[in-house]
Amino acid sequence: MDETGRDTKRGGDSWAGLRLVVTGGGSGIGAAVVARAAGLGADVLAVGRRADRLAEVTAKAQAEGPGTAVPYAVDVTAPDAAARIADRARDVLGGVDALVNNAGHAVFDRLEDAAEADLRGMVDTNLVAPALLIRALLPALRASRGCVVNVSSVGGVLAMPNRSFYGASKAALNSLTRSLAVELAPEVRVNAVLPGPVDTGLWDLAAGEGADALRERIVSGTPLGRFGLAAEVAAWVCHLVDPGSSSWVTGSLVSVDGGRAA
Ligand SMILES: NC(=O)c1ccc[n+]([C@@H]2O[C@H](COP(=O)([O-])OP(=O)(O)OC[C@H]3O[C@@H](n4cnc5c(N)ncnc54)[C@H](OP(=O)(O)O)[C@@H]3O)[C@@H](O)[C@H]2O)c1
């Protein structure tokens, strides 16, 4: 052990053999995290519902190496999902150094138009599932002196008219991040990345037919004048995972948002 409490057997290359669980790993930001982490040498369990997307992303990461990537198709809101993911992580990875809670549900609607199932679904996917997964993986994370990175949103710190429940679910995730950072210290670090608008399928799913108009409004309200790339967010997720750079960082909410929340 070194003074950060981590196993020093890894030597100078802090990513080789690092074991990550990444939810929502089959598309967008999660897929970019899987690619980057495996590219740095980590072993990744990529979780999501669509087996075909996970298979594609993990096969590519596996082929490019030097790390490994294994798919696991499961709905993170299923009653036994957290326990099943913890079991699979133990079997496939032999332990966990980092959990990236990235799976997210976004339905953009005025409160008076929103379906109750969507409101409940956003809280289930964006808050309850991450919390249950952290809890299920805690023994493994404590054993490795590991970390959690929650993929939240600027929507959790800005007013979000017409997207209030999405924003509220991410604000709750931000609160969970800060509280657990203190509760789980010093064994487990807990941080969050707060992306601004990133060019992923979430926008098509989130805004339906109004997606183009919403995109234009978003770009004009973003100081850097464009949508971000999934890889630009993945870089910061991995930076917070990296024991070489972030071993003294916990409870941080890091905006990666083109200046949107400035
Ligand atoms: N794009 C943005 O502008 C933006 C901005 C701020 C924050 N974020 C956050 O970034 C995260 C990733 O979103 P993205 O932009 O990369 O969009 P995305 O490509 O739609 O990714 C969302 C991922 O979550 C997975 N997912 C959703 N519900 C799930 C469930 N119940 N169980 C398991 N997996 C589930 C989806 O996979 P399956 O459908 O296969 O399950 C998908 O891979 C989300 O938490 C989102 O809120 C995105």
What would you say the CATH architecture is? Answer: 3-Layer(aba) Sandwich
Main beta-sheet strand count, sense and barrel state: 7 strands, parallel
Identify the bound ligands: NADP nicotinamide-adenine-dinucleotide phosphate
Instruction: Please write the CATH class name.
Output: Alpha Beta
User: Based on the structure, what is the oligomeric state of the protein chains?
Assistant: single chain
| Beginning-to-end CA distance, first to last residue | 39 Å
Overall structural domain count: 1
Shape: globular
Rg computed from alpha carbons, rounded to a whole number of angstroms: 17 Å
Number of strands: 7
CATH topology: Rossmann fold
Order of helices and strands: EHEHEHEHEHEHHHHE
Helix residue percentage: 40-55%
List the uncertain runs. Answer: 8-12
Task: State the CATH superfamily name.
Answer: NAD(P)-binding Rossmann-like Domain
Secondary-structure class: alpha/beta
Proportion of residues in β-strands: 5-15%
State mean pLDDT (0 to 100 scale): 94
Description:
One of its GO terms (molecular function) is oxidoreductase activity. It is an enzyme of class 1 (oxidoreductase). With 262 residues, the protein is α/β, with parallel strands linked by helices. The protein has a single domain (17-256), classed as NAD(P)-binding Rossmann-like Domain (Rossmann fold, 3-Layer(aba) Sandwich). Helix content is 46%, strand content 14%. The chain contains nine helices and seven strands, in the order E-H-E-H-E-H-E-H-E-H-E-H-H-H-H-E. Helix 1 (28-40) packs parallel to helix 2, helix 1 (28-40) packs across helix 8 and helix 3 packs parallel to helix 4. It is globular, with a radius of gyration of 17 Å. The N and C termini lie far apart (39 Å). The model is unreliable at 8-12 (pLDDT under 50). The protein binds NADP nicotinamide-adenine-dinucleotide phosphate.
